[in-house]
Write a structure and sequence with these properties.
six-stranded antiparallel sheet; Calcium-transporting ATPase, cytoplasmic transduction domain A; Rossmann fold; elongated; about 625 residues; 21 helices
Length: about 625
């Protein structure tokens, strides 16, 4: 049963029994307090008996929510809150305190409902994402006609038509048309993204403008949206280290407090002649106070709320353990290419020899490269266009490209060679050249060496701001690990403000660098592209993949995936994880502190059963739940 199919916690049998118990409790209170009758003792007794019956009925109906589980806990000697509540409710009835018993049954049921609501809210928020994909798609048939078919029948390779305003039914690649697509459901990015032929689109996103034809690349069960939902569901089942500790603590704490309550019920009366009923009530009250429900729910409710918030903002965190570790990160290691940089080459400088006209050289160069689809050719064409150099009128003849080395062609009757030094025959650099770029290509004509093009990876605009934000969040050390050359890597370090850089690293050497950072700082996160950085990501305390929406393998293997190519999600994820850690610790401290104060009051006889459940159980559970739910609105 999916989160969307699961009935609301307010409409379950548990909830109905709670409502009935509350109604009977209220009716009993009205009967005992507001029923006007003669003052004869007989009428008063009858009225109180009626109220007592209503209270007892409320206790038994509300207690049904816990009795069966309490008996199982006693049989297996795994004493839990169901056992404690069952004993407290039955005990209150036996000592003639039906109002106290009814209050226990009702208020504890309400606390349990609140916990279920908090967890269900997070699950439903994720499950509703599945519903964003439409049920039908417009499929283009071989004869050119369009047929409406269920999305479940779509297969890889099918071609579908998506009109303006339609939700996209399946993951695919644009094969015709251009448009803008709102991808907020997948990446958390609210600004519509332009899509042209060759671009990828995702199920559940919304086509904002033009009509497009899309070739399906994944069926409905394996779409990016479906994978996100399933992974978040699985993540909810993975306990964080602190959650495991609390569970172990509760397993010891509950029987110890139960034994203490039993001693409180018996020792004062047997050893010191104190009132047996009075000390029995005190012990019963201590049992109620000791119920660890608020303590136990402090972590899972917070984790579910945080995971849900992260997924809605385009950050997929693969479980509570990764959320907790992410909040404790002290050092960060970044891959350079495709992470701090866009992975797209751009011309950083065009150097020319003495006596060469720069614009004329750029025109011939752009004309020659226009025949090539290499990334260097694309970067040079873009550079020429940005500077208003039009090479379209040039006549290009005898074009020939040599893979890995360069190309040569005749442009307007002049021979041009572009490529590596040995390809063009360069023996020495230009006097003005400086090795600052990732890639350098030389340009030679029949007259000799005329210039040099320096290209580098384009720095992401938000990279320096992201590094600064990480520092403000308390990250002690930020390093760049790259297989690129030292000069461009150092330039990116200076531009971003990172602390250190290690260049020309093989994958195994990146792993060694991450290990050194772990030894020095205790915990380190590694951000990379999720493919060639996989060993380093696996070695880090937390491995974070960049642009998970474009790579199914990334979503499957990373601890955390930023679903969009957006570095700004990284400080958000760190801030959310750190806030979650604070909320969890605050919740545990509040729960334990409140119980400690009330326990002292119960032993002293100044805290009643009703106060114990109202403040120590319901109050603590409500405080923990509301505190956790705040994370769902974290931005």
């Amino acid at each position: 049963m999916t989160g969307a199919d699961r009935p609301s916690p307010w409409r379950t049998r548990f909830a109905v029994r709670t409502y009935v118990a509350g109604a009977l409790l209220a009716l009993g209170g009205l009967t005992s307090l507001t029923l006007h009758a003669p003052d004869e003792a007989g009428w008063l007794a009858l009225r109180l008996d009626a109220a007592g019956l209503l209270y007892t009925a409320a206790s038994l109906i509300g207690g049904t929510n816990f009795f069966a589980a309490g008996v199982r806990a006693a049989r297996t000697l795994r004493l839990d809150m169901n056992f404690l509540m069952s004993v407290a409710i039955v005990g209150a009835i036996l000592i003639g305190e039906p109002f106290e018993a009814a209050s226990l049954a009702f208020l504890f049921s309400v606390a349990e409902l609140l916990e279920r609501f908090a967890v269900d809210r997070g699950r439903r928020a994720i499950a509703r994402l599945v519903e964003l994909a439409p049920e039908e798609a417009s499929v283009l048939l071989a004869d050119g006609t369009v047929q409406r078919l269920p999305v479940a029948r779509l297969g890889v390779g099918d071609r579908i038509r998506i009109r303006p305003g339609d939700r996209i039914p399946a993951d695919g690649r644009v094969v015709a048309g251009r448009t803008d697509v709102n991808e907020a459901t997948i990446t958390g990015e609210s600004v519509p993204q332009p899509k042209v032929v060759g671009n990828v689109v995702f199920a559940g996103t919304t086509n904002a403008a033009g009509a497009i034809d899309v070739e399906v690349t994944a069926d409905a069960a394996h779409s990016t949206l479906s994978r996100i939902v399933e992974l978040v569901r699985a993540a909810e089942g993975r306990r964080a280290p602190i959650e495991q500790f609390v569970a172990r603590f509760a397993r010891v704490y509950t029987p110890v407090v139960t034994a203490l309550a039993f001693l409180l019920m018996t020792v004062p009366a047997l050893a010191f002649g104190a009132s047996g009923l009075e000390w029995f009530v005190r012990g019963l009250t201590l049992l109620v106070i000791a119920c660890p429900c608020a303590l136990v729910i402090a972590t899972p409710v917070t984790v579910v709320s945080a995971l849900t918030s992260a997924a809605r903002h385009g950050v997929l965190i693969k479980g509570g353990e990764h959320l907790e570790r992410l909040g404790a990160i002290q050092a960060f290691a970044f891959d350079k290419t495709g992470t701090l940089t866009t992975g797209r080459l751009q011309v950083q400088a065009l150097l020319v020899a003495d006596g060469t006209d720069e614009r004329e050289l750029l025109r011939r160069l752009a004309a020659a490269e226009a025949r090539s689809e290499h990334p260097i050719a694309t970067a040079i064409a873009r550079y020429a266009e940005e500077r208003g150099v039009d090479a379209r009128s040039s006549v290009v003849e005898e074009f020939e490209a040599t893979p890995g080395r360069g190309l040569h062609a005749t442009v307007d009757g002049r021979r041009v060679w572009v490529g590596t030094d040995d390809f063009v025959g360069r023996t020495r650099p230009l006097p003005t050249a400086a090795a600052q770029s990732t890639t350098t290509v030389a340009v030679r004509t029949e007259d000799g060496l005329e210039g040099e093009v320096q290209l580098g990876d384009e720095l992401r605009e938000q990279a320096p701001l992201v590094v600064a934000r990480l520092r403000r969040l308390g990250v002690a050390h930020i390093a760049i690990l790259t297989g690129d050359a030292s000069a461009p890597a150092e330039r990116v370090r200076r531009a971003t403000g990172a602390d250190a850089v290690a260049a020309r690293l093989l994958p195994a050497e990146k792993v060694a660098e991450v290990e050194r950072l772990r030894q020095r700082f205790g915990s380190v996160a590694m951000l990379g592209d999720g493919v060639n950085d996989a060993p380093a990501l696996a070695t880090a305390t937390v491995g974070i993949a960049m642009g998970g929406a474009g790579s199914p393998a990334t979503i499957e293997t990373a601890d955390v995936a930023l679903m969009a190519d957006d570095l700004s999600r990284l400080p958000y994820a760190i801030a959310l994880a750190r806030r979650s850690r604070r909320v969890i610790r605050m919740n545990i401290a509040v729960a334990l502190g409140l119980k400690a104060v009330l326990a002292v009051g119960a032993i002293a006889g100044v805290v009643s059963l009703a106060v114990a459940v109202l403040v120590g159980d319901l109050g603590a559970s409500v405080a923990v739940t509301l505190s956790a739910l705040r994370l769902a609105r974290f931005k």
